[in-house]
Write a structure and sequence with these properties.
4-stranded parallel beta sheet; about 15% strand; globular; 7 helices; about 150 residues; alpha/beta; single chain; Rossmann fold
Length: about 150
């Protein structure tokens, strides 16, 4: 892992069905590639480093320590992709809040309109922007536009 600060992409995977999980992994990877195109540094995507199946040698404590260090010391922006309910994303958002790292939330417009994204998450003081999108192509375009506007260290 690079010591250079990067964007950290946070989103659910664990409880998704296998087909949705694979599509979501590819989506996160495409977002990471856009981050590299805009900032020069590829985003950190947790499943590429700590996937519970592919990287089963890591204990939960080791994953917590590594990801906590990644968020708190090596992250310039936390990008939350709120595509489904999650039991982990809020932890990363609060770590970012406590260490002064800005947070951007991306969510399908429909989920925002239906209030399916937690007010607690959206109201976290670290959240600097919520990016609604219609579909994955729109999300990629919107992220590209927003990253050009945000000054990322």
């Amino acid at each position: 892992m690079s010591q250079e600060k990067s964007i950290y992409i946070c989103g659910p995977l664990t409880e998704l069905d296998q087909e949705k999980k694979e599509l979501t992994r590819r989506f996160y990877e495409r977002l990471a590639d856009i981050c590299k195109n805009i900032t020069g540094v590829r985003a950190f995507v947790p499943h590429e480093h700590y996937d519970p199946i592919m990287h089963s040698q890591f204990t939960p404590l080791q994953v917590d320590e590594a990801e906590r260090r990644q968020v708190c010391e090596r992250t310039s922006l936390l990008l939350v992709v709120a595509i489904a309910p999650s039991w982990g994303g809020g932890i990363e958002v609060e770590m970012a809040n406590k260490t002064g790292i800005p947070v951007v939330i991306m969510c399908e417009q429909e989920k925002l309109e239906q209030k399916k994204v937690s007010k607690l998450l959206c109201g976290n003081p670290a959240v600097i922007k919520i990016i609604p999108y219609q579909d994955q192509q729109d999300a990629l375009k919107s992220l590209r536009e927003e990253l050009r506007k945000i000054n990322i260290v």
